[in-house]
Amino acid sequence: MCRWLAYSGEPIQPSTLILDAQHSLVAQSLNSPLGAETVNGDGFGFGWYPKDDRTRGIPALFHSIEPAWHDENLREITQAVESPLFFAHVRAAGGPPIQQTNCHPFRHENWMFMHNGFLSDFITYKRDLTFAVDPSLYPAIHGTTDSEVLFHLALTLGLQDDPIGAMAKAVRMVESVGREKGVAFPMQGTLAVSNGRTLWTFRYSSQGQTRSLFHSAEISALRELYPDAERLNLFGDRARVVVSEPLNNLPGAFIEVPEATVAILDEAGYEYQPFLAS
């Protein structure tokens, strides 16, 4: 459906990953070997926490319905700013219209969210899930995607206090309501959520055949493995990225996130936890 990446670490120019990597996100928007769709040209989004905001407050967003490879503003912005944590997403629309309000990432206060995948046959139980969103949050749903409803459902269920627990409750609700409507495998996707300091990334589907998800190996280990790879010097020791598919072809540079897993990334590094594992 889509491709995305999330970076956390020392502040960098986002263009380093979004535009300049061997198999950058923009390159994936044109040719995505591991994606369900080869081309992801139905708009994009970029969200970032500013370098000089030590409180990691409200992130900035840039959305466009143009293909990522065609947008000069994306190049200008990602080269002009530096950020210690940012999201980027390229979209292949699976039904909802191509409009800015349907582009990821989505934002609520200091939280960002993005999704690659879908809620199967969403239209048959869209009303049930939307009406389960807290009335105070409902006006913040500006688009028509299943992803935005899922985000606000998780917020309703306590995302800001317990991201993993709230996301589990939201996904279980999707599965319960979807199956009541005759949908065998309601949930499909990889998800990214952040409050500006910690990054939670989820890989889960009702069928157990989830879209691909990888994270980078430790920079220190990669420098030992590839001492002549000058590009690694662009990154600090805490630099880490979670991606729909690897950004280069270096063996060992990217590690696949297991099925039914949440990978939690903070200043201490990665931690895996089972997520709704059967």
From TrEMBL:
Coiled coil: none annotated. The keyword Transferase applies. It holds the Pfam family GATase_4. PROSITE patterns: GATASE_TYPE_2. One of its GO terms (molecular function) is transferase activity. Residues 2-278 form the Glutamine amidotransferase type-2 domain. It comes from the Bacteria. Keywords: Glutamine amidotransferase, Transferase. Transmembrane segments: none annotated. This is Class II glutamine amidotransferase. It comes from Orlajensenia leifsoniae. The lineage of its organism: Bacteria, Bacillati, Actinomycetota, Actinomycetes, Micrococcales.
